[in-house]
Amino acid sequence: MTVLKTSMRNFFAHKGRMALSAVAVLLSVAFVCGTLVFSDTMNTTFDKLFAATSSDVTVSAKSASDTGETTSGNGRPPVMPASVLGQVRKAPGVKSAEGAVFSSAVTVVDADKDNLSPSSGAPTIVGSWNANEARTMKVTSGAAPKGSGQVMVDKDTADKHHLKLGDEIGVINAVGTHTAKISGIATFTVTNPGAAIFYLDTPTAQKTLVGRTGVYTNVNVTAAAGVSDARLKQDVAAATGGHYKVQTAKETADANRKDVGSFLDVMKYAMLGFAGIAFLVGIFLIINTFSMLVAQRTREIGLMRAIGSSRKQVNRSVLVEALLLGTFGSVLGVGAGIGIAVGLMKLMSMTGMNLSTDDLTVAWTTPVVGMVLGIVVTVLAAYLPARRAGKVSPMAALRDAGAPADAKAGVVRAVLGLVLTGAGGLGLYLAADASKASEGSMWLGLGVVLSLLGFVVIGPLLASGVVRVLGAVLLRMFGPVGRMAERNALRNPRRTGATGAALMIGLALVACLSVVGSSMVASATDELDKTVGTDFIIQNDGGQPITPQAAQAVKKTPGLARVTEYKVTEGDYTTPDGKTLKGTDITAADPTYATDLRTKTVAGDLKDAYLPDSMSVHDKFAKDHKIHLGSKIKIAFKDGATANLTVRAITSSDAVIDKGSKYISIATLAKYVPADKMPLDEMVFASAKDGQQDSAYKALKSSLHDYPQYKVRDQTDYKQAMKDQIGQLLNLIYGLLALAIIVAVLGVVNTLALSVVERTREIGLMRAIGLSRRQLRRMIRMESVVIALFGALLGLGLGMGWGATAQKLLALEGLNVLEIPWPTIIAVFVGSAFVGLFAALIPAFRAGRMNVLNAIATD
Q1: What CA–CA distance (Å, rounded) separates 559 from 70?
Q2: How far is CA 294 from CA 50, 63, 302, in A?
Q3: Which of 143, 145, 134, 139 is nearest to 52 (CA)?
Q4: 334-391 pLDDT, tens per residue?
Q5: How many Å apart are CA 801 and CA 807, to the nearest integer?
Q6: Are residues 641 and 780 in the same domain?
Q7: Hey, which residues does 632 pair with through a beta bridge?
Q8: Is 164 buried (19+), middle (13-18) or exposed (0-12) by CB count in 10 A?
Q9: Transmembrane segments in this chain: where (predicted)?
Q10: How far apart, in whole angstroms, are the C-alpha atoms of residue 828 and residue 822?
């Protein structure tokens, strides 16, 4: 009980000093709980949606996916004859059945040819209005579509694009372009996860999406009273002769949930990973806080020991303070986490994914996980300072002599740090020297972890040297004030090392990712310059294929010397070694692609791969399956016949563009795949006539004005697009790492604040002998800057080492250029100085306000 009272008294006596540590715990717990609440809410939203939109039993074509995805390689949805509806209605246990037609391989534009697809990446769906849709959509304005000239749109899309009744829109797909006017607006009765949905009447949907009537993409079946979905599925499957895919509502919902769940899991675990980094940084803050509080209470601890307190009681007293801190920070963190989740939902709504707070899901495990993590991490971080406090002997404490084992612990720390750093360096060397990316990745991960731990452990030893160098370069010019700032930073190397290490972790990751991202862009750009011989690349950034009408518009563009179509399909391979490879990709292109892509060959000539019944393979595939020039490969094409193709070329696997592709000509593909099953173009390449590049570029954009879903890029545009794509990903990661950097900044603030309190008497004496308030504040600011730059120097150096090693692994995949983004590295280093200045504002201000006489009188 006495220990608890002592701990409570000390905790509240230093509540101001504990506040920043509590904020670190709060932020870390909030990020974890916010991630869990947000992901659980997303799961709840999609579960409700899938449950509401799935009929008791759904019948679809055999080639349709389990998720109900309504696209195929030829840009048209897999369909069934309308006669299947009659068969289903005759099955026992069927209350009602209705045919429907849907497709997501569409683009919808307004009258100005602006794309109405969601920017969030959610699908655009066009389909027939039917009773199943009426379960989740309510017509709130106008009327449902009737006739080919009418279309209905969901309210979210109408509001976002300012659409109103009577406005004209165009539906673009593989069949052609269909225009209609908005007859009605429908509102979701469940949460809309961001899709844009347009409804036509059934005959119009059939003609627009498939090109003919008398077909359905699916039949929605409702069970009669007392008939289970499983029983209904059996009866419907029997009635249709087993020729179609039949799924219960649960099977459809589970397939959709699995499809969405994989994306949600990636997002969830990535965010939890960044929360873990924030926790790691917070550990240094907590260790520093308790180490300094223990140091400031050395005499008090000595008195406690002198009047009979045992080591265990002193140890326990510090740990109880940590328990109070962890509990306080974690409770606030759980509440803040729910707020973060709501904020993320609002942010997602701004991008088009509407998530309702009515679906906010806080599982009982979320606060438990947050509390346990926050408390355990805080108590563990306080263990070393607590153990150190318990070791202080009464007489040594009363003399302010400190712990006798400090020197020995410093030697052990130095040796351990050197061993860990050396082991980490060896891991990085083995990763860089690896011949396989999978093997190298393992060594890279080990090297990163060990080198990070090594730098953390050896930080105090490094601080002694690095701070002196930084002081000589930056602080000596400020005279005595600068030298005092340097000595203050060197006074306790362990504290300086721990404070700098907190900042080092976040900046090391920033530097590593910057090097990797820049190297990827530089490598891809270099490969593009070397291998791509075309002027223009036309594609859909969302991955949708290019419609025949758009491809034809490209071919008719004036000023072009050649146009190359590029398709991807798959087939079942039977290779010379007798193996059968199911669903293996194959690329079909026009013969001019051999000119557009200057692919390196190790045998034969790529142009010969476009001869009739010929193909190419890459050298790793050839080696694995004993293939050489003249070998025959049997390919059973998807939706087509079986061909025996002769290998005419073997390409190098050491490539970035089209790495690992196997080529045939479009003419060969057309010989074995019916015209109505031919896949659409993934991309189209175009080259201008000599001297007409600028005019052809403008003409291409004009030709595709009616098809805004496709981007026309010259090589400069394509390089910039790659750079922007990687840059957006890096910016997202930097944003998540900002949490760890914020916690590190709090650590600098806390260290300085406690250091000022620790040096109260010293500050009073310096003021008494003539140090001005301005000089005092400058001294503290410079001390903060040098600590921040120390952490930045270690972090950036370590991160660049990690990034350079990672690039060596990327070189095994063809990304051969190492590029250090010096502007970013220099900007981060300079920014760290400003971080140090910012962190010192409050401690410096408080130090400047000290009363000189009271400070001198402080014991």
Answers
A1: 37
A2: 57, 70, 11
A3: 134
A4: 998 898 888 888 877 776 666 777 778 888 888 998 898 888 888 887 777 777 666 6
A5: 10
A6: no
A7: 646
A8: exposed
A9: 269-295, 318-344, 364-386, 407-430, 442-475, 496-516, 732-757, 784-804, 824-845
A10: 10
Closest residue by Cα to residue 63 from 218, 206, 260, 176? 218
Domain boundary among 197, 212, 243: 243
Backbone φ and ψ of 821, nearest 5° = -80, 75
The whole-number pLDDT of residue 482 equals 80
List Cα–Cα distances, 338 to 27, 276, 332, 341, 737, in angstroms. Answer: 12, 18, 10, 5, 20
Residue 652 corresponds to which tokens in the numbers above? 């190098």
Is the model's pLDDT at 157 over the cut of 70? yes
Distance of CA 234 to the CA centre of its chain: 42
Structure tokens at 857: 């009188």
CA distance 580 to 530: 35
pLDDT value for 407: 56
Q: Find the helix or strand (DSSP H, E) in which 451 lies.
A: helix 437-457
503 and 376, same structural domain?
Answer: no
Q: Is the dihedral of CA 794, 796, 801, 803 positive or negative?
A: positive
Supply the angle between the helices 298-306 and 311-350 in degrees, to the nearest 10. Answer: 140
CB 657 within 8 A of CB 532: yes
On whether the CB atoms of residues 519 and 815 are closer than 8 A, the answer is yes
Q: What are the tens digits of pLDDT across the range 637-695? A: 988 999 999 999 999 887 777 888 999 999 999 999 998 889 999 999 999 998 899 99
Sign of the Cα torsion 446, 451, 454, 459 reads negative
Question: Are residues 592 and 729 both part of a single domain?
Answer: no
Q: Which domain holds residue 755?
A: 460-536+709-859
Q: What residues contact residue 850 under an 8 Å CB cut-off, 6+ apart?
A: 760, 763, 764, 767
Whole-angstrom distance, CA of residue 481 vs CA of residue 776 = 8
* Residue type for position 475: L
Of residues 89, 574, 18, 16, the one with CA closest to residue 321: 18
First to last CA, the chain: 29
Considering the domain architecture, whether residues 766 and 855 belong to the same structural domain is answered as yes
The gap from C-alpha 388 to its chain's centroid, in whole angstroms, comes to 41
Which residue do the tokens 């090594």 mark? 454
Q: Are residues 473 and 329 in the same domain?
A: no
- C-alpha distances (whole Å) from 202 to each of 14, 83, 144, 172, 537 are 72, 15, 11, 17, 37
Q: Coil, strand or helix: which one is 210?
A: coil
Q: How far apart are CA 579 and CA 385, in angstroms?
A: 63
What burial class does residue 795 get, using C-beta atoms within 10 Å of its C-beta: 0-12 exposed, 13-18 middle, 19+ buried?
A: buried
Rounded Cα gap, residues 380 and 279, in angstroms: 12
Dist. CA 634–CA 706, nearest whole Å = 41
Express each pLDDT in 192-218 by its tens digit. 777 889 999 999 999 999 999 999 999
Q: What is the C-alpha R_g of the chain?
A: 34
* The token pair that represents 731 in the structure block: 């910016």
Count of domains forming the chain: 5
Local structure of residue 115 (DSSP, 8 states): B
| DSSP label at residue 610 | G
What pTM value is reported for the model? 0.81
Could you tell me if 595 and 559 lie in one domain? yes
Rama region for 821: left / alpha / beta (φ>0; ψ in -120 to 50; rest):
beta
Q: Looking at residue 548, what is its pLDDT?
A: 92
CB atoms within 10 A of CB 135: 15
One domain, residues 276 and 352: yes
Question: What's the CA angle centered on 731, arms 728 and 735, to 5 degrees?
Answer: 140
Instruction: Show contacts of 854-859: CB within 8 Å, 24+ apart.
Output: 854/764, 855/760, 855/761, 855/763, 855/764, 855/765, 855/767, 856/761, 856/764, 856/765, 856/768, 857/764, 858/760, 858/761, 858/764, 859/299, 859/761
Which two structure tokens, joined as six digits, stand for 826?
A: 């220099």
Do 431 and 447 contact (CB within 8 A), yes or no?
A: yes
DSSP 3-state of 361: coil
Residues 470 and 529 in one domain: yes
